Amino acid sequence: MVAALSEAGLLARIFPRLAMDAGHSAATVLGPGDDAAIVSAPDARTVISIDTQVQDQDFRLSWPNGYCSTGFDVGWKAAAQNLSDINAMGARATSMVVSLTLPPHTPVAWVEQLADGLTAAIRELGASSCSVAGGDLGRGREISVTVAVLGTLDGGNAVLRSGASPGDVLALAGTAGHAAAGLALLESTHHVGQLTPQQRSLLDLQCRPVPPLAAGPAARAAGATAMLDVSDGLLRDGNRIALASGVCVDLDPASLDLLAAALEPAADLLGTDARTWLLGGGEDHGLLATFPPDVQLPPGFTAIGSVQALGIDEGPRVTIAGRAADTGGWDHFAD
Ligand SMILES: [Mg+2]
């Protein structure tokens, strides 16, 4: 357990596992060892985001279906969520700082796995220019993992939520609703050992999300007008673009049907509606973006709707084929 080690002793176990090796990142001028790290910012601007995961709020160590979240899972997810927010600006992550709060009885191996998960997410998700520049260790009653990530726009302009115009194409990169289906499986009585490979892949995406990190900078380069990562579901995040841009975001029911098809087997198992996960489920961290109609969508993006002007007396909103999304608009067109 971590209580058996000094802070220096625990850091000595973690450091070799973090993506902080010399020469790994061009951004880290001075890594751990002094009171603060130094990172370069050739662009003269820094994109920055921070996110905290708290045990039993944002993750559980054991689930009703028998699955136990590993330190690797928690480290991966902490990195992936933060990398996704940099991606959603059209930027590229350059460095990270990590703050860990650990109960004294936490196994040292669990903390080592967490470091491995952080590093694996950075490397396997393709954020190869990002490294861990430093961090902090503390004790507390439950596990808490805070990651702050810095990124660069490489001289370009950020893609905000506010730039969508009527006539733009609405497009999605990555999956939607899969992590929500995975969460429902974790919270179900269907034992993890009896899931099909397809169901297991949904569970894995909840525990170790795979945001499409190449797609953010590609969308910026292609001229995306608005973008965010889907962390709270297509409806809520689509509504954020609608509100910020003062437009109507209209989803195409045929595209939604195609996206929902991958969720149907799990929905059948749990006796629920795949569309609930697709429209309301976040945590896949796909990218929802709008593009001018004459732009060829960058690799990874699929058109799923369009941006429309507001009618007289209409507020910004999300619709499905012109119908209010929260009043069964999709049902109406599903037949
Ligand atoms: Mg976000």
UniProtKB/TrEMBL annotation:
GO biological process, one term: thiamine biosynthetic process
High-level lineage: Bacteria, Bacillati, Actinomycetota, Actinomycetes, Micrococcales
Name of the gene: thiL
Domain PurM-like N-terminal: 33-152
PANTHER family the record matches: THIAMINE-MONOPHOSPHATE KINASE
InterPro entries: PurM-like_C_sf, PurM-like_N, PurM-like_N_sf, ThiL-like
Superkingdom: Bacteria
Chain's role: Catalyzes the ATP-dependent phosphorylation of thiamine-monophosphate (TMP) to form thiamine-pyrophosphate (TPP), the active form of vitamin B1.
Binding site for substrate: 58, 283, 330
Residues that, per the record, bind Mg(2+) 1: 51, 136
Residues noted as binding Mg(2+) 5 in the record, renumbered to the chain: 232
Organism the protein comes from: Pseudarthrobacter chlorophenolicus (strain ATCC 700700 / DSM 12829 / CIP 107037 / JCM 12360 / KCTC 9906 / NCIMB 13794 / A6) (Arthrobacter chlorophenolicus)
Family: Belongs to the thiamine-monophosphate kinase family.
Pathway, per record: Cofactor biosynthesis; thiamine diphosphate biosynthesis; thiamine diphosphate from thiamine phosphate: step 1/1
Molecular function in Gene Ontology: ATP binding; magnesium ion binding; thiamine-phosphate kinase activity
Residues engaged in binding ATP: 135-136, 161, 231
Amino-acid positions noted as binding Mg(2+) 4 in the UniProt annotation, renumbered to this chain: 35, 49, 85
Binding-site list for Mg(2+) 2: 51, 85
Positions annotated to bind Mg(2+) 3: 35, 85, 229
UniProt xrefs under Gene3D superfamilies: PurM-like C-terminal domain, PurM-like, N-terminal domain
Designated name of the protein: Thiamine-monophosphate kinase
Catalytic activity: thiamine phosphate + ATP = thiamine diphosphate + ADP
Note: Reaction mechanism of ThiL seems to utilize a direct, inline transfer of the gamma-phosphate of ATP to TMP rather than a phosphorylated enzyme intermediate.
Enzyme Commission identifier(s): 2.7.4.16
Keywords attached to this entry: ATP-binding, Kinase, Magnesium, Metal-binding, Nucleotide-binding, Thiamine biosynthesis, Transferase
